[in-house]
Design goal:
CATH architecture: Beta Barrel
Distance between the termini: 43 Å
Family: Belongs to the calycin superfamily. Lipocalin family.
CATH class: Mainly Beta
Main location: membrane
CATH superfamily: Calycin beta-barrel core domain
Helix content: 10-25%
Keywords: Cell outer membrane, Lipid-binding, Lipoprotein, Membrane, Palmitate, Signal
Function: Involved in the storage or transport of lipids necessary for membrane maintenance under stressful conditions. Displays a binding preference for lysophospholipids.
Structural class: alpha+beta
Number of strands: 9
Order of helices and strands: HHEEEEEEEEHE
Radius of gyration: 18 Å
GO molecular function: lipid binding
Strand order of the largest sheet: 1-2-3-4-5-6-7-8
Number of domains: 1
Largest sheet: 8 strands, antiparallel, barrel
Shape: globular
Amino acid sequence: MRIRSVPTLLALTALMALAGCASQPAQMPRTVAHVDLDRYMGTWHVIANIPNFLEKGKVATADEYHRRKDGDIAITYHFRKGFDRAPDAWHGKGWLPDPKDAAHWKVRIIWPFVSDYLILALDPQYRYVMVGVPDRDLLWIMARGTTMPDDVYRQYVEQARAQGFPVDQLKRVPQTAAQVGRPGYQ
């Protein structure tokens, strides 16, 4: 198909944008009311997620966040492709589209893909967090350590269910070799 004019190109772009909007959820998931961004920085181990093609099969995963001098957030995604394999990492960045709302980020781990990062639940002591995306097809439950109490995990799963996330797709991420192959784990 040849585009013969700028107006035609603009019209096609507008139609594609509208088609993309049609697939967006009617209402964004609710985020937490307040996040102390400096306190949030550091390492968060992935306890469970809705597996996606980039993370599937990875073990000992963790996200590490640090404030950059320019105000953005440096992101390092740590992982292994097996406990017998060397640790690896991907590097990306995050930023706040609205500096007054630290519960909603934009993140880019693999250029040029940008995604929303919504903090849906956060423990008052910043020990546990649940993060999702607007269309509800991705969800992460994370902790400062490599474990999370079962009652906290169940509470976060129920909060996600109440917000319309497909929690039946959640899988725990092995943080130790002993967890590989256990029921409910990737």
